[in-house]
Amino acid sequence: MLKAFRGFSAIFYKEAIHMRRDTMAIMLALIVPIMEMIILGAAIDTNVRQIPTVIYDQSGMFESDNLAAGSDSREFVDRFRNSDTFKVYKYVHSDKELNEEMIAGRARVGIKVPVDFPRDLLRGHTAQVMVMVDGSDSSVAGQAVNVAGAIGLQKSLELALQNRQLPIDVRPKIMFNPDSRSPNFFLPGLIAVLMLMITTMLTAFSVVREKEKGTLEQLMVTPVKPLGLMLGKMMPYFVMAFIELIILLTFMRFAFKVPIHGNVVMLCALTSIYLFVNLAIGMLVSVKANTQAEALQSSMSIMLPTIFLSGYVFPRATMPLPFFILSYFIPATYMIEIFRGVILRGAGIVELWPSALALAVMGVAVLLLAAKRFSKMVV
Predict the structure, then answer these.
(1) DSSP string of 5-34, one letter each residue
(2) Which of 37, 253, 351, 363 could share a disulfide with 347, CB 3.0–4.6 Å?
(3) How confident is the model at residue 26 (pLDDT cuts 50, 70, 90)?
(4) Is the CATH code 3.40.1710.10 the one for domain 51-161?
(5) Exposed/middle/buried for 145, CB within 10 Å: 0-12, 13-18, 19+?
(6) In the chain, helix, strand, coil percent, each to 5?
(7) What pairing do the DSSP bridges indicate for beta strands 51-57 and 109-113?
């Protein structure tokens, strides 16, 4: 059994020396992911807030840019102004101005209060308010429609019930991320994607570099077994990737204030399996590629489906069935579930062992496939 790993220590030493001399690889592995986490973590916010909004109040109950005190229209408009979703930046005085603001893209939401709005409310009739929403951004449009509808429903209930107690008191409770902070949801998945980029890109060049330099033939004539060669080339990058993992988790916890509710040691142990899988994938790419450009293209072809099909950007449950099934063959699918489970929900090994087992099976299968492919090259 140990003969299968013959040459591991020699290859490990050789690859470690090469990695130490390759300053660009060290920069890629250690500096770039930190920069990406800082930029993406600070710039991206999935919560839709402060949508530019313009108001046209036909009821004539304002002077200059201020509504008359005590009017129903002002009280209703104030609900939009006080909402964190809408940012009222301008009042207009005609339909033409309202349309111009929407067409120019300066306003994403336009609210038109009709002239008979106070009179209809006074008579107990249905008072209509038009909310124009820019549908060019579906996430913004959906949030604007939902909040506008909730504001109208709240006002309607208050008028209908006339200060009576509601028969049903529904009090929703948001678990795991009660403040709906984007970094809490976004960064755990981002770490999984960054670790994929580090490990796959670095190892994808390891064997193909030997081909281009003409040193692969020297390795073939040495008493090195394929598994020993694969592991020897992988482990230096595994150590570097694990150090990067600790750095990213530290940044996430203290720079972005994302609490880790689960066991950190268990998280690192499960992530080690994920790193092993990605390193094995990189080795398979490197064995099959003939040039570094080909290895780079193959690596990119792996990363793009990972980002879009792993559940990092879009929920997997909403995907068509063929793509939903395909997502089970993407390692990041399981790692994102592990990250979010441990960091956000405080999940333990009892809840996460299926994902860990799937990663372990993938890692062993891909490594054996890469070793078999290399054996055919030797023959």
Answers:
(1) GTTHHHHHHHHHHHHHH-HHHHHHHHHHHH
(2) 351
(3) low
(4) yes
(5) middle
(6) 65, 5, 25
(7) parallel
